[in-house]
């Protein structure tokens, strides 16, 4: 899910509308410029954090896909055709050892 970018003045417009609904009008001045700058910094911070979260999510998905592939390769059943001669030799040795009796 990709979030839309917040425009620099969009947040300030919402805050000023909120204050206007509460009976406080933000007129141009030093205080209003500070609130506007704070809203712009907040919008930038939100936008940057969303980009970081998206990059992290993409990297996580990529790593998870690699991990699933490795697990699949390690746990997938081996076909008889693909066994190498060394694997066949080891399998025969294991089978012959299990049939032996211990000497006392």
Give a written overview of the molecule.
The protein is mainly alpha-helical and 104 residues long. It has one domain. Helices cover 71% and strands 0% of the residues. α1 (8-21) packs across α2.
Summarize the SSE layout with pairings.
Blueprint: H1 8-21, H2 30-75, H3 85-98
Helix pairs in contact: 1-2
Give the count of structural domains.
1
Runs in which pLDDT lies below 50 for 5 or more consecutive residues are none
Following the backbone from N to C, one meets helices and strands in this order, namely HHH
Q: Share of helix among residues?
A: over 70%
Report on the biggest sheet: none
Q: State the oligomer.
A: single chain
Coarse morphology = rod-shaped
Number of strands: 0
Mean pLDDT: 84
Beta-strand content: under 5%
Number of helices: 3
- Rg, Cα atoms, Å: 33 Å
Instruction: Look at the helices and sheets and give the structural class.
Output: mainly alpha
What is the rounded distance between the termini? 70 Å
């Amino acid at each position: 899910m990709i979030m839309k970018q917040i425009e620099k003045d969009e947040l300030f417009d919402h805050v000023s509308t909120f204050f206007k609904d509460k009976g406080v009008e933000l007129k141009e001045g030093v205080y209003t410029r500070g609130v506007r700058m704070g809203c712009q910094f907040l919008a930038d911070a939100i936008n940057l954090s969303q980009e970081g979260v998206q990059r992290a999510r993409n990297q996580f998905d990529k790593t998870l896909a690699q991990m699933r592939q490795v697990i699949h390769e390690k746990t997938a059943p081996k076909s008889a055709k693909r066994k190498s001669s060394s694997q066949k030799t080891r399998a025969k040795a294991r089978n012959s050892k299990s049939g032996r009796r211990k000497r006392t």
